[in-house]
Amino acid sequence: MEGRAATAEELRSGRVPAWLLGLAPLILIMLAIGVFALLDGPGIGDRRGPPAEELAVERTTLTPGVIELTVRNDGPDAVTIAQAVVNDAFAQFSGADAPIGRLETAKVRIQQPWIEGEAYEVALMTSTGGTFAHEIPVAVETPANDLSFFGLMALLGVYVGVIPVALGMLWLPWIRRIPPDWLRVVMALTVGLLGFLAIDATLEGFELAGEGSQAFGGAALVLVGGIVSYLLLTGVSAWLAARRASASGATLALLVAVGIGLHNLGEGVAIGSAYSVGALALGAFLVVGFAIHNTTEGLAIVAPIAHLRPSLSRLAGLGLLAGAPAVLGAWIGAAAFNASLAAFLFGFGAGAIVQVIVQLAPSLRDDSGRTLHPGAVAGLLGGLGLMFLTGLLVSV
Amino acid sequence: VAELTRRKLLAGGIAATSGAALLHSTVPHSHPWEAQAAEHHGGHTAGGHADFRDGRTVNNAGNGFDPNELLRDFDWGTTSRMPSGRVVREWELFASEMDIEVAPGVSFAAWTYNQRVPGPTLRCREGERLRITFVNGASHPHTIHFHGIHPAEMDGVAGLGAGEIQPGEKTVYEFDALPAGLHLYHCHVRPLAEHIAKGLYGAFIVDPAEPREEADEMVMVMNGFDTNYDRANELYAANSIPFAYMHTPIQTKRDELVRIYLVNVLEYDLVNSFHLHGNLFNYFPTGTSKTPSEFTDTVMLCQGQRGILEWRFPYAGKFMFHAHQSEFTELGWQGFFEVV
Hints:
The structure holds 2 protein chains of 2 kinds.
Chain A: H1 8-12, H2 18-38, E1 55-63, E2 66-73, E3 81-86, E4 90-91, E5 93-94, E6 105-111, E7 120-126, E8 131-136, H3 147-169, H4 172-177, H5 180-211, H6 220-244, H7 249-276, H8 284-302, H9 312-323, H10 325-335, H11 339-360, H12 374-394
Chain B: H1 5-16, H2 21-24, H3 32-38, H4 60-63, H5 67-70, E1 74-75, E2 78-81, E3 87-103, E4 106-113, E5 121-125, E6 129-136, E7 145-146, E8 170-176, E9 181-186, H6 192-197, E10 201-207, E11 216-225, E12 235-238, H7 244-247, E13 250-252, E14 257-264, E15 271-276, E16 281-285, E17 294-296, E18 298-302, E19 306-312, E20 317-322, H8 326-330, E21 334-339
């Protein structure tokens, strides 16, 4: 053996430093590109062919007499907006005086005496005669980003996030009294609820990704968000487990709370943005719907700690962790909505929930070690069904 | 029905609950006119009319033609006499491709006769012998198809006479100027819509042997441009440049007879129209009869239809004219007469 192969030790201690070996391929690539450019090789320098123009409308703001669009250049070439047309009539506008470079944004303020509740089609005409049409399905004044608006959004977040979760946690005393078989059914119900949320968030994320600027990855953002949060939470839970010797109910409850919190962040974004574009009318109906829908999230947090005696402050902390992100989400959604960001957040929430499901799964096992025993299946189906039915009340 | 769902459901929820008012009432109701007054920025606009950004205009010099000059530009060609004494009138038209600024900052890859859209307004007298030399300097086959009375082989369509004129080739269309009236010419190569919409058309006037009354004569070829190739027009105009006669009103004199040679070549839209403000006009469809068919202020024309309009302005001032399809109007097909 020693005759024909160097030992690992010998390989590690070569004359050339390791960092240089690591950089060598990169340096060679740069040299190759440099030589190619010097020789004016095809494919280097200006892009050939007719310009490929892409514009995505990232934000629409309506104030009396003005429609303001924030557009992002999605395509490879600069785009020059020459004229604006609203509902088949040229309109005066300001902004976007200079060509918009790749991935740059511009604000176009169009003078249009729009009427509340009516639909508008804004077409931006570029220097090549191309048009980018943007539909405003229902014109509603965009709320001003003032203090009272942020207060309103906070109130909304509390309604749909904090209060329902807190209410759901009131099931704790009941869970403590039921026999272990029943507790497993409740845990399965929780997993079912979370499973529904994960699917829902993923689909919502894909829908948003379709609206957003494709240059940032589109639907891939949702998946990337999911993977990132799954891995982050897995790392955190492994770290917690190492510190506490075993994955206790308390750790699980914390993870569930974080997962649900991330989901509620996304939900808050959706609600806030829907409200700011007028697609969401607020009312007791919505608030009651969310209360029922999200109350079950509270159940998911307390189920793993049924056998413990957590302090009230600890319970309150878990509740806030799960519910309060809805407030933050509503602020983000209303004030700085960006479809690509929202898609990523939805994926992030979904990944967190999947991670929580993986953590909760072992607690479904019955005495003979089966996970999908009849009780668990009934619970899972019940959870899915419950979320589906309550979701009908509040789809945003 | 697909859109019922949430909005209507939620709206119902609001109606049912007075508590909702607490959350719902923060959106003030809009008064657009207030903002419009406040929203002022540089450049003059056409005083509240639809217009291009900041009232900007296209570079007519860059285009090589100006709609205010096209208006009264009649191309009589060159004449000679046959031994019999009959007048022979000749023109040379060449097809070529050029970019036109059809709206400020927007360029359009046009196909043209004699580097202008519409092509030259060919004008002659009834009964003359007409000889049109056509040179195709473009990169696609083209023809000139004249409306009027002529032999089949002079019809400028594929498969008859010279047929399609290939790039670099030429032909001569020769026929008698018949009948008196207002006609048009255009390319007749498939795909037709494309060959017409890109700009290969013009007006063709045959004056009656007995001349019409002296008048301030103008030609208006109603057209449009499909700048994004979706087979619908983004821009509408008379004589190609939208809003041109808003920015530079057409000067006319009080009580003087105004005569408009109006031709519709608009592609993709079923009809076009002409409407005059503050006045009515005599309308002579195709200009073939000297008796007006109608005394009106609005006429409707399909593609290829044309007619002569005559009126006098009894009052000085500015009077609008435009298509009476509001969409066309506010996408460019409107202008002013300024009567002094």
